[in-house]
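User: My instructor asked us to take a sequence, write out its structure as tokens, and then describe one feature of it. I'm not sure where to start. Here is the sequence I was given:
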Amino acid sequence: MADRPSVSDLASIAKKEPQNLQLHADKVVHLEFFAGDAAHHKLFRGVRFSKLEDLNLDASDDNNDESLEPYLGPSLKTLLFFGGPISDAFLEKLQKSCPHLEELLIDNPRDLISPEGFLRFLNGARSLKRLTVMYGLERVLTDSVFIALATRPGLEVFKPRKLITSNLVSKVVVVDDDHRGGAKRRLFPHLRKLTCAGDADGIVGLLPHLSELTHLEASIEGSNSGNSDSDEDPSENEARDLLLNINRHCRKLRSLKLGYSQTDKNEIAISSESLVKLTQGMEWLEELSISNEKVKVEGFNDSHFVSMVRTLPRLEKLQLSFDCDLTEAALIQLLQVDERAGKNLAELEIWGCYTLNIPLRDLTGCDAALPKLQSLVLGMLIMPSPASDPKTSEVVEAARLLTMLAPNLEEFDVVLDNAFSDMVHKQLTTAPT
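Assistant: Let's start with the prediction itself. The structure tokens for your sequence are:
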């Protein structure tokens, strides 16, 4: 049997050839339990999966301390656990039986794990490099547990389900200084990928420690920051500080995703200047996403967009999903510049309002601005006049413009669609342009 058998195949052997089950189990390196597969745990009781390196467990009440014992061994490196009644006792077995465990994802353990038990596990799991803490562990990820994670070496990927606040970061820094007699030390010294939620102050406080970060995905929420005496909108001040600090401290980023959440009905204001400055010197960036329908980037226009794209030669995915002043001129300028701007883009989503009835003769001789682009999403297409009856020729011309812009385009969509955008979409997908 291959080293990646299905659970159902192993279950069949357990029922029909139980004397051969251990022989097959000894060859298994990767094992994935889908929905319903966990019912077969009882068939593997007493069997050891000695070579098992990767274990993926879909959520099930059959995933418990006892039923999972057969899979715990010194070869296990990755455990993705998506739910079931496991306790501190399981974590103790995991830590002792799997000294080479490098990756753990843990989701919904039914409130059976305590902060103390989780902390003991972390203290013993010396090889752990990648940790994802999901639903049902909010009470486990206490400040003490977070501090332990922030100050331990070796952690490369961290996805905590805990709000990172300025108060929390200050606690981590104080505790670390106390332990080192006042000496400064970088937190998360080996971290490469961080997925988190937090207020801007908290994340800004953490950024000076994250100079080696290559991937950052953050949901920004909570209190405003900045100079309270400033005439500027406090939320704009907060966003600017965050963007400029990312640029200052995280120049090795390859992927940056920022989502903004707001509990009240106020718009979240971001400075267009700081958004442009965010991208300066970020030469390794391949993916950039800034999104929320309540975000307003006042004055963010076509020249700002082109400036951003020009400074990111490796950019492959760009999502600017917020209220802004982008128009078709942004796309036309990309067609008219003889540079690397946008040449590697494969996915692009930009909000704004676009008129696509530009005379194509004005663009004759222009090279494709986005030769690798496969997916394009625009905010809104402006209806030609009269709005109730878009002319077929205008639809064809709009589709031709998009094809000139991106000859390999496979997917096209509009956030606020109308009859005209629907006809352009149909023209692109059903007729040669």
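For the description part of your assignment, you could build on this observation: Residues 217 and 257 are 5 Å apart (CA to CA). Try explaining in your own words what that tells you about the chain.
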